[in-house]
Amino acid sequence: MNNPLDVRRLSAHVADVRLNRPDVRNAFNDGVIAEITNVFRTLGADADLRCIVLGGHGKAFCAGADLSWMRAMADYTWNQNRDDAQALADMLWTIYSCPVPVVGRIHGDCYAGGVGLAAVCDILVASDAANFCLSEAKLGLLPATISPYVIRALGEQASRRFFVTAERFGALQAQALGFVHAVCPPEELDAKVDEIVAAIIANAPMAVRACKALVQEVAGLPIDPQLRDTTARRIADIRASEEGKEGVQSFLNKRKPSWLA
Questions:
Q1: Top-level CATH class of 205-260?
Q2: Does the structure show a pLDDT above 80 at 72?
Q3: What is the 3-class SS of 17-70, one letter each residue?
Q4: Assessment of whether the complete model's pTM goes beyond 0.85
Q5: 5-201 is classed in which CATH architecture?
């Protein structure tokens, strides 16, 4: 039996994580959820890592929950369902809060929980052949566990529609809504992902991590005295750091910074 995840280190600074269950359209079950959680915890703790690419093998990116797993859940007690949902919530949070930027490579269909998996990525690149669908309402369910991330990434107004209609929408529409950052033909997908990865790793590694955290922590907050004070302190901290000093000095002296040496 294949490992449900194909994890590769592409370079000293880049890791590639692919869902590896093409026979079930990369649908996940409790074992896959645990594996993804463990992998991202490990990668997030790697100080040398600067970028993670999350994708999938086969025709689909991720079809959501595995049908066999769903059949088993039909007989679960409320407490068992709660524990199952908590494991999924923990997986999504682990990816979302991973200090390393995550680039989602959406090469094929992305449904239900797969949309949640895409939503916790920092940057999404999609094939123009990919479709998205929040299909839970068709099954008498709701996208509760993924909703905090999907609503942030897709937007409240679009979520109002797609949560209740369970319509499919394409990659270009997802891009127009701000969910997907770049759309390209399938044959250009890897080149576009590589371009974005190269842009990330060309930057100061600690600054990149700080920038990711900054967006997550500042988004939605009122611009009050406390926020103004916090952001002023953050820029002072990073200017005084070794990396901040190196970046400014390399720019002024017209040389490459140490992280590009």
A1: mainly alpha
A2: no
A3: EEECCHHHCCCECHHHHHHHHHHHHHHHCCCCCCEEEEEECCCCCECCECHHHH
A4: yes
A5: Alpha-Beta Complex (3.90)
